[in-house]
Design brief:
Chains: A mainly alpha (about 100), B mainly alpha (about 725), C mainly alpha (about 170), D mainly alpha (about 525)
Oligomer: heterotetramer
Number of domains of chain B: 2
Structural class of chain D: mainly alpha
Structural class of chain B: mainly alpha
Strand content of chain D: under 5%
Helix content of chain D: over 70%
Order of helices and strands of chain D: HHHEEHHHHEEHHHHHHHHHHHHHH
Distance between the termini of chain D: 35 Å
Low-confidence stretches of chain D: none
Chain lengths: ~100, ~725, ~170, ~525
């Protein structure tokens, strides 16, 4: 049987890779993709703990589903924002979006 | 129309004329003088209707005069009433004042060169030399106001309304004396009209404020200012006569009388407030006639005649201090004015001093209780002095035209520049001669003789021998300087080209002269003393006196003095003597040239210089009153008291608080402000330094967050695990 | 090491590899496709956890909807950023450090966590149970409904944001 | 109509704020703003005329009263009311404000100017209308602030004032500061005295205090006797209003403030604000402190006389036309104070009712008259200043009458009104006061005649230096004549001056009844 630890480490790896992407990528849409990665890593965690915890209690799965919903919503709004910004400012580079500078 | 309403209406037309000219007619010269002339003629007609209906009422009509009033000012539960009344006294003024005014108005039309076009060289505010006066309309407006004020004063039934007319006349005299306000003289000692105007107004104002006090005093004592209500109230008159005032030796009535008399001193140019009158000659000549004959100076005399019951109160029980003062000032002024007049060269100035002197006669007469004689002289003087002034104006006008013809620059008013005008200006000559003889008191045929004789006779009859002597000398001098004036002006040969080219003026100027000449002769016959041989009976036993005393309550009416020959002989002697001496000195040997020294000057020497300089009264006043007033105003009250002392104290207090404020601010800076200030500095510095992390980039923020989480995690790990 | 463990390792390796390709790829389209790969691999991970339903949902929702959406977005905005430009910002090294530190911390935390595995028979009826749990007032109806409202709101918001302005059109 | 009748005083008091709002909202165009301000300033005037027509002066007493809760914790109410004293003052204020506004069509930053003017109007009206001590004080202070800004911001920019040791400051700042500080200092004592009364009596309501305070025997916090309290309060009131009048030796702020203020500011300052002081004497000081007033009456009369004489001399010594007119205000207000001294004397001594009525009514009439003539004079100074850009009499140098006959006529007319020429308004008041004070303060009255004489001297000096003289070619290319708007400012003033001079009963009836009612 696969130990729980493995899943968690996989999830961690995936999370950190996503984190790196979020912090380092210039393209806003790429950042969005990395966010999806991080989100996915969380679902792995949730499902793994369900599987190794009380199986009758479906909270883990339910939360995973809700995370999907949140991810979908986030993607929708985020991408709409990206397109809107692109339309107005002709860029999707996150570094250029610094209107709130000091 | 009933008579009382007519009295209200008498002063109204000139006042309306003033408003009409000022507001609407000021661009049309013909319309202006038409309005003005019409208005005074209306007043004249209404006055005479009133006067003759008063005559019809009989001698003692004064107890129940034409009278009408309105509530003018509420005073608590009572009212100060304003009204008009015509009684025996002011009916006489209403007889001659409007007549003289109409004459003056008519005369002004010619005098202001009406009919000629406006000339470019005639600037507004200077005497016109070429064409009609540029301010022609304004002149008639002011004259109208003047006439309206004089008539208001005449018909007033109370002292306050009289004062209103009195002061408005003061304003008009100011405006009219200063009418040629733009005139300048090369001679620095000469008084330009604008200064003369101020001098006139202020000198009379000195007197007017005193008179105001007198009015206030009378009002507070009597509770009314109505002449009739005061004089015919025996109880009140008794109180006024017997209660002592705050000044020892004066009863209330005496003090009121004295204060009111000061008003007359100013208005009628008595010594020591006479100084304004000669300078008032700077005004146009019709104005001089108006001020010095018909209106203003008469008003002064009229006022003390009107207030005679107050002034003479207590006089029957021994000497009354007020009357003594009045007599002294009158007699002194009569002599004083006459002496100055003999040394003047300006044709109008001679008349001005003559006016002062003649007014002195009236004042002295009133001071001696010669109520009738004073009034009588007031009337005759108005006629012949108006005549003389307008005659002198006619002379000046003629000479000015001569000047204009020959392009000569001389003083057209200086008698030394005249001579020989008799043949060139015959009407002016004959009328001026009549006026001059009347002024001198030429026996029997001139009005001036009868009125002056009345005064001298009264003085003699009541044993005022000193006054009698003084007045006789003054009368002698009067005749002398009159003859001097006539001789210098009309006789001999012309001493300048201008005089040579002078010619008679048009009818608007000569007609008034002729009319007034008539009155200067015949007005005297109504006042001939009843006991005068032949003539007294012939002229109706002195109707003037019988009429006039009706203005007074019965117990105050003066008795006619007993006729004696001495004063009559004296007055004939001084009149003829003066005329003769004058003729001998100036008429028989006329001056040959304008530069010739006056023959009397050698005789009198320094005294002449003193007379020529009017006893240096002006200089004395300037040094004693005007300069100190400047100093007080500019230095004492303003610089020393206000700016120095009061503001000094304020600034001291202010600077004290200022310094206290500066000090406490310094303390605050160190003790109170510094710590929070430094803290605030620190916060700002930190903020300045830290603001750079606020890049506006979401990834940077996220990075910080994650780093922070990492650090917290590490820390947490150490704490929990360690 | 059992067969399932080996399978897990292979799946994990593929997952991580494709994830790395997502974050490092220069070409965004390829990145997006690698994202699909990653998500697919995660679905595989779910199957190793006996969560078949989750795997299916992962494929349908993530790959079928989100990933495709991202692909569209990439293509719509493609012209502003070509492949030659650097795809990472100046702070990429810091991101590496931070990620590694976080990873180390996580590994530190999860190491030693172990729970006994439940037998596969326990999870037999999960789809029915899940369906009941979602609509049961006693369990998760509220989060479920909130999630649906959230989706609607996101939908409308997305339309509203991305819709061209009137003055532009 | 019912609504207007019930709220007349509130409407009069607060409609200026309507004008202020309108000015603030008006389009940014100078002419438009000025016209709107003028139109709105007519509303209070019309309401005041309605008040004048409907005030029953025979019945006397306070009418059109409004009494609302305002500051219940200290028992101060919002109590308004008018009697025969305040109606003429309200009329004067509301008459002058439209004229001032009409006179200021050319000022810069007109929006702020007009707005401040309306606030000033509210302040002054409030003082005349309030029947509550605290309310009175509040409005008294409200008037200061706009005036300060009017002088400070719109005053003549060129003036310099030399202080001690050669320090030179801008004159308008000096003047505005002096005005503000001086009046505030006066207000401080006033406020303390008001509090003193309020604490001992428990109310600020004036009609109540009229009845209770003069006879009250309460001690203050058990350490000062009633008479001490009253004496202290009396002098506090006295100084406050003496500064406002202004009375020698508290008058030096006035020439500075008047000289530097803008034309309309000087008009309203001389026309209305000075009246606050004299009004305070009649409304508060004498009725509330009859014994103390009677005791101090000789001092009041002495100071009044000194004001008359010294200010007249100072005016005569001026070279600045406006300062000359400013000093003439002190001179004229001196007569008001002389009349007030008689009223004060009558509060504790038996005085003939006619004397009292004449002195009191004379003082009020003089206040009204001075409001008209001083406003006219300041306006005329402003007219010549606007054209010649100088007020120095020597620089003007005379000879302007040729270029400006209408101006000249109006200047002489108003000068004569100010000089007290019978037949014009100034004389009525002066005569009544002289007559009223003669039996009581004979010596002072006689001495004040020096001042009356000098009035003539300075007025004629002003006329000579401006109008008379040979044509001054320097002014040939300046259009010196007044325009239609300026004539429109002067016309009502001139008509009123003549009307009151010829028929003084037109305003004296109401005032006379009020004096009899209050002091008789």
């Amino acid at each position: 049987m696969i130990p729980l630890e493995w899943y968690l480490i996989l999830s961690s790896v995936l999370f950190c890779v996503g984190l790196y992407g979020v912090l380092a990528r210039r393209n806003a849409i790429a950042i969005m993709m990395c966010l999806e990665l991080m989100m996915t890593s969380i679902t792995i965690n949730l499902v793994a703990f369900w599987r190794y915890g009380n199986v009758a209690n479906l909270s883990g799965q339910v939360f995973a589903v809700i995370v999907f919903a949140v991810a979908a919503a986030e993607a929708t709004v985020g991408l709409a924002l990206a397109i809107s910004i692109y339309r107005n400012r002709d860029t999707v580079v996150a570094n250029d979006l610094n209107l709130l500078k000091w | 129309m009933n008579t009382t309403l007519l009295i209200w209406l008498i002063p109204v037309p000139p006042l309306i004329s003033f408003l009409l000219i000022v507001l609407f007619a000021n661009r049309t010269k013909a319309l202006s003088h038409s309005i003005a002339l019409t208005s005074v003629i209306m007043s004249w007609i209404m006055s005479w209707i009133v006067v003759f209906s008063a005559f019809a009422k009989g001698y003692y009509y004064g107890e129940n005069p034409f009278h009408s009033y309105i509530h003018w000012l509420p005073t608590g539960t009572t009212y100060l009433d304003m009204g008009v009344a015509v009684d025996n006294l002011n009916s006489i003024l209403l007889f001659f004042v409007p007549l003289c005014i109409v004459a003056i108005f008519l005369y002004s039309i010619g005098y202001s060169n009406f009919g000629k076009p406006v000339h470019d060289h005639d600037l507004p505010g200077t005497p016109p030399h070429h064409g009609v006066d540029p301010l022609y309309s304004r002149f008639f407006a002011f004259l109208s106001l003047f006439a309206g004020a004089m008539l208001t004063l005449t018909v007033a039934d109370n002292l306050l309304l009289l004062f209103v007319g009195w002061e408005v006349m003061g304003l008009c005299s100011y405006l009219l004396i200063g009418f040629w306000y733009g005139r300048e003289y090369d001679d620095p000692k000469a008084t330009p009209p604008r200064i003369a105007a101020i001098k006139a107004f202020l000198t009379t104002r000195v007197a007017d404020v005193m008179m105001l006090l007198g009015i206030a005093y009378l009002y507070s004592q009597a509770g009314t200012l109505n002449f009739h209500d005061i004089f015919f109230n025996e109880e009140l008159m008794y109180d006024l006569t017997h209660n002592p005032s705050m000044i020892a030796g004066f009863t209330v009535a005496n003090l009121i009388g004295l204060l009111l008399f000061i008003g007359t001193v100013g208005k009628s140019a008595q010594f020591p407030l006479h100084v304004w009158l000669p300078d008032a000659m700077e005004g146009p000549t019709p104005v001089s006639a108006m001020i010095h004959a018909a209106a203003m100076v008469s008003a002064g005399i009229y006022m003390i005649i009107r207030m005679f019951p107050i002034i003479s109160a207590g006089g029957s029980h021994g000497p009354n201090p007020t009357m003594e003062i009045i007599t002294f000032i009158g007699a002194f002024t009569a002599l004083f004015g006459a002496t100055i007049a003999i040394a003047q060269y300006d044709v109008k100035r001679v008349l001005a001093y003559s006016t002062i002197s003649q007014l002195g006669f009236m004042v002295a007469a009133l001071g001696m209780g010669a109520y009738v004689a004073a009034t009588f002289h007031l009337m005759t003087h108005a006629f012949f002095k108006a005549l003389l002034f307008m005659g002198s104006g006619s002379i000046i006008h003629g000479v000015e035209h001569g000047m204009h013809d020959v392009h000569e620059h001389i003083d057209p008013q200086d008698m030394r520049n005249m001579g020989g005008l008799k043949s060139r200006m015959p009407i002016t000559y004959w009328t001026f001669l009549i006026g001059g003889l009347a002024l001198s008191g030429f026996p029997f045929v001139t009005a001036g003789f009868w009125s002056k004789d009345e005064i001298l006779g009264d003085a003699w009859a009541h044993h005022h021998y000193i006054v009698f002597t003084v007045l006789c000398i003054a009368a002698f001098l009067t005749a002398y300087y009159t003859m001097r004036q006539i001789s210098l002006t009309f006789y001999g040969e012309p001493r300048t080209k201008s005089a040579e080219h002078a010619h008679e003026n048009n009818w608007t100027m000569t007609l008034p002269l002729v009319v007034l000449s008539f009155f200067a002769i015949f007005a005297g016959f109504i006042g001939v003393h009843g006991e005068f041989p032949v003539l007294g009976q012939l002229f109706g036993n002195n109707p003037f006196e019988h009429w006039l005393v009706g203005a007074l309550p019965k117990d105050m009416q003066p008795k006619p003095f007993t006729f004696t020959w001495f004063p009559v002989i004296m007055s004939i002697a001084v009149a003829l003597g003066g005329l003769l001496v004058g003729y001998l000195v100036y008429g028989r040997n006329p001056l040959k040239s304008a530069d010739q020294v006056d023959p009397v000057k050698k005789l009198l020497g320094p005294l002449w210089t003193m007379l020529e300089n009017k006893y240096y009264v002006d200089e004395f006043y300037y040094a004693a009153f005007v300069k100190p007033a400047h100093w007080i105003g500019e230095t004492l009250t303003f610089k020393i008291i206000d700016r120095g002392i009061i503001d000094g104290i304020i600034h001291f207090v202010a600077s004290f608080f200022w310094k206290a404020g500066v000090g406490s601010a310094a303390v605050e800076q160190v003790a109170v402000d510094a710590p929070p200030d430094r803290m605030a500095d620190g916060v700002r510095w930190t903020g300045d330094a830290m603001k750079y992390i606020q890049t506006g980039r979401i990834q940077n923020y996220l990075m910080y967050t994650v780093i922070a989480i990492a650090l917290i995690g590490v820390l947490f790990g150490f704490l929990v695990a360690g | 090491m059992s067969g399932s463990q080996i399978a897990f390792l292979i799946i994990s390796a593929l997952t991580v590899y494709s994830a790395l390709m997502v974050v490092t790829g220069r070409n965004l389209v390829r990145s997006a496709l690698w994202l699909v790969m990653t998500l697919f691999m995660v679905a595989a991970v779910f199957t190793t956890l006996d969560a078949g339903f989750m795997a299916v949902v992962q494929i349908v929702v993530y790959i079928g909807a989100i990933a495709i959406l991202i692909l569209f977005a990439v293509m719509l905005t493609r012209k502003v950023m070509n492949d030659t430009e650097p795809q990472t910002n100046d702070n990429w090294w810091m991101a590496v450090i931070v990620s590694v530190v976080i990873f180390v911390g996580m590994v530190f935390m999860v190491s030693g966590v172990s729970l006994p595995a439940r037998p596969a028979s326990d999870v037999s009826n999960q789809i029915v149970d899940l369906g009941n749990a979602f609509v049961s007032p006693n369990q998760f109806i509220l989060p479920f409904e909130v999630a649906s409202v959230l989706l609607i709101a996101a939908l409308i918001g997305g339309i509203a944001i991305a819709m061209p302005r009137e003055e532009e059109g | 109509m019912e609504f207007i009748n019930n709220n007349l005083l509130m409407l009069i008091l607060f409609t200026p704020l309507l004008g202020m709002t309108a000015v603030m909202l008006a389009p940014n165009n100078k002419g438009t703003i000025a016209r709107i301000a003028f139109a709105f300033s007519l509303i209070p005037l019309l309401l005041t005329l309605y008040l004048w027509a409907n005030y029953d002066f025979v019945a006397g007493g306070f009418q059109f009263e409004v009494n609302a809760r305002w500051y219940p914790s200290v028992n101060a109410g919002f109590h308004l009311g008018v009697d025969g004293l305040s109606v003429p003052m309200v009329l004067l204020a509301n008459l002058l404000v439209p004229l001032c506004i009409l006179a200021s069509f050319n000022v810069d930053r007109i929006r702020g100017f007009m707005a401040l003017f309306f606030i000033l109007q509210v302040g002054t009206l409030g003082v005349f209308l309030s029947l509550d001590l605290l309310l009175f004080f509040a409005f008294y202070e409200v008037g200061l602030v706009p005036m300060y800004f009017l002088i400070n911001q719109w005053g003549s920019p060129k003036g310099k004032r030399e202080l001690s040791r050669g320090r030179i400051v801008p004159a308008r700042e000096y003047a505005s500061f002096k005005f503000m500080i001086y009046t505030m200092a006066a207000g401080l004592g006033l406020l303390l005295a008001i509090q003193l009364i309020g604490i001992t009596q428990g109310t600020f309501d004036l009609p109540t205090l009229y009845a209770t305070w003069p006879t009250s025997n309460e001690t203050f916090l058990n350490f000062a006797s009633a008479s001490t309290v009253k004496t202290v309060a009396f002098w506090a009131f006295f100084v406050a209003f003496a500064i406002k009048v202004p009375l020698f030796p508290f008058h030096t702020w006035l020439p500075d403030a008047h000289t530097e203020a803008p034309t309309a500011g000087s008009m309203i300052l001389a026309g209305v604000l000075l009246k606050l002081g004299a009004y305070g004497f009649l409304r508060l000081v004498i009725p509330l402190f009859p014994e103390q007033s009677a005791a101090a009456a000789p001092i009041i009369a002495l100071l009044g006389m000194l004001s008359i004489i010294l200010a007249a001399y100072s005016a005569y010594g001026q070279t600045d036309f406006k300062r000359l007119v400013a000093y003439s205000s002190v001179n004229h207000m001196g007569f008001v104070v002389l009349g007030l001294a008689v009223v004060a004397w009558a509060a504790g001594n038996a005085v003939d009712p006619t004397t009292l009525a004449l002195a009191g009514a004379g003082a009020v009439i003089q206040m009204f008259n001075h409001g008209l003539s001083a406003a006219a004079m300041f306006f005329l100074v402003g007219v010549v200043y606007e054209r010649a850009h100088t007020r120095n009499l020597d620089e003007l140098g005379g000879g302007i009458w040729q270029y400006a006959p209408i101006y000249g006529g109006m200047l002489i007319f108003s000068s004569m009104a100010s000089l007290g020429l019978p037949g014009l308004n100034g004389f009525v008041g002066e005569f009544a006061i002289v007559r009223g004070s003669w039996p009581i303060f004979t010596f002072y009255t006689a001495l004040s005649m020096i001042g009356l004489f000098m009035t003539g001297a300075y007025v004629l000096k002003g006329i000579r230096k401006v109008l008379h003289g040979p044509i001054n070619p320097h002014w040939a290319d300046h259009n010196m004549e007044m325009n239609v708007r300026e004539i429109a400012v002067m016309a009502p003033l001139l008509v009123l001056m003549l009307l009151i001079g010829v028929w003084p009963a037109s305003i004296a009836n109401m005032i006379n009844y009020a004096i009899v009612h209050l002091f008789g």
